[in-house]
Amino acid sequence: MFLTVHAAGGIIISQAVKEPWLIFTLSFLSHYLLDFIPHGDEGIGRWLEVKNRRLFLIGTADMLVMVIYFIFVLIFIPDINLSLMMLGAFGAILPDFLSQLHHQTSNYLAPLHNPLKFFNRFRLTRYFLKRHDQIHRALHWAIEKNMPWRLGLVFQISIVLIFFGLVSLI
Ligand SMILES: [Zn+2]
Q: How far apart are CA 120 and CA 75, in angstroms?
């Protein structure tokens, strides 16, 4: 699922809940819940895995769209609590960065393997990243089955619009 969808979910939580630790925890958990819903990532995932460049391009575009979403929220909801908003977004996208960190550190063909491989040196981080990635993947693919990516894209854009509507109501 695209980062923007997760971030948009985290932003709702950040405005609905008051305690920062709870915002972070619920946003973090919301990631797995959203990933669990089928959203057409199956085909994109396979297409991305073929070339590192694709992963880099889509990853960059994904982050760019997320930043545009942040700007959009700040323009339309100027009284939003910015630091809590960022905390919610951070918690909500963190699982994807942890899994990417696992991929980059454990796969020597990954483009950022060299600068990041130092995380793999410590048994604890290596174990944590591996176990986290296993759980993340298991939840992600639990019911995801062959949804066409175009439909998935429309679905994800719809969720972002609904989340934007919700956050402007809070
Ligand atoms: Zn994910």
A: 41
